[in-house]
Specification:
There is one protein chain. This protein is of the alpha+beta class. It has two domains: 81 residues, no CATH class; 83 residues, Glutaredoxin. The termini are far apart. Helix 3 packs antiparallel against helix 4. 47% of the residues lie in helices and 10% in strands. A four-stranded mixed β-sheet has the order 2-1-3-4, sandwiched between helices. The longest helix is centred in the first third of the chain and has 14 residues. Bound molecules: FE2/S2 (inorganic) cluster. The site of FE2/S2 (inorganic) cluster has 12 residues, from helix 6.
């Protein structure tokens, strides 16, 4: 089909799939869905995996899951918003996701998280009062070879330390200078 003839929904799905193609986390999620044979009754399990990988469930991620499972997006949104253990994308202008999976943890990602929490004055799962920064954690983002990894606004960044993380977040925090 010619791109010009795509309707809004198809364009949105095409944009999400293009975004997904360059992000290893989507590949891991895809493998997880395959393992569950794309079964609709595995939706909660798949959303858990998605949250582990990304730290929260944002629109692109929910659309990706809906598209791959061939479920209406409304159903996937409904489940994601109904259960308290799912975190939807927080409202901060910027997001920082610290991986606390085993490989990252043993290389000190907890001290990275602690440094950011202290400097930003928020805990994981919260957003700074000025709305600039949301801080999240994930449990293995598929980048163990470059542990400890942190994702800044969607960019997976290798071998972080408290110092490099705070440097990266300069300008995203009220007292980040
Ligand atoms: S444990 Fe952090 S990327 Fe795997």
């Amino acid at each position: 089909m010619m791109p010009a003839l795509l309707n809004e929904k198809q364009k949105r799905v095409a944009a999400v799939m293009e975004h997904a193609s360059g992000d290893k986390r989507f590949k891991i999620l895809e493998a997880h869905m395959k393992k569950h044979q794309y079964r609709h009754d595995a939706l909660i399990e798949i959303l858990h995996k998605a949250q582990e990988l990304f730290g929260c469930l944002d629109d692109d991620l929910l659309l990706f899951v809906a598209y791959r499972l061939k479920l209406p997006a409304s159903r996937v949104y409904g489940v994601a918003t109904f259960y308290h253990f799912f975190t939807l994308k927080p409202q901060g202008r910027h997001t920082c996701v610290v991986c606390l999976g085993t490989a990252c943890y043993v290389k000190g990602s907890n001290s990275v998280l602690a440094a950011v929490e202290e400097k930003a004055g928020i805990k994981a799962g919260e957003t700074t009062p000025d709305g600039q920064l949301s801080l999240l954690t994930a449990r293995c983002i598929g980048a163990c070879g470059i542990a400890p990894a942190v994702v800044y606004d969607g960019t997976v960044t290798p071998r972080q330390t408290p110092e490099t993380a705070l440097e990266h977040l300069k300008g995203w925090m009220p007292n980040g200078h």
